[in-house]
Amino acid sequence: PSLAAELENREITENDYETLLTLDAAQPAGSGGLSAKELASLKCIMLTKNSSLLRQRELYCHICLAGYAISQHIVELPCSHKFHKVLRRQLAVPHPRLLSDL
Q1: Is 43 helix (H, G, I), strand (E, B) or coil?
Q2: Which residues, 6+ apart, have CB-to-CB distance to 55 below 8 Å?
Q3: For residue 91, what are the contacts with CB-CB under 8 A and spacing of at least 6?
């Protein structure tokens, strides 16, 4: 199976960093990133103490990997990954730059 297929079927760990860099390097220049229209259409919610999100097993930002706090705004991608709203602009750049921009 391909590297990407292997990673899709298991949890990603800190040991996968070099593999992820290899996959990023294989992407054509300018790929990744979302348009302004796509960014604006993403679902955004405010985390409250009664939020159903608090019952989810993986409640952390998939961009910065930090946890969330009550009253923070969270954006949800169509794939169900979630991240801090303040990091939304990071999705407008090609993925290989994402890690260096944080």
Answers
A1: strand
A2: none
A3: 33, 34, 39, 63
Q: What is the pLDDT of residues 26-57, one digit of tens each?
A: 766 555 667 778 777 888 889 998 888 777 77
Q: Is 97 helix (H, G, I), strand (E, B) or coil?
A: helix
Q: Is the pTM of this model over 0.90?
A: no
Say if CB 102 and CB 46 are below 8 A apart: no
pLDDT of residue 29: 58
Q: How far apart (Å, rounded) are the C-alpha atoms in residues 77 and 3?
A: 23
Query: How many helices (H) does the chain have, and how many strands (E)?
Result: 4, 3
Dump pLDDT digits (tens) for 60-101: 888 788 888 899 999 888 777 888 888 776 666 554 444 433
Q: Any idea which residue has 């921009």 for tokens?
A: 101
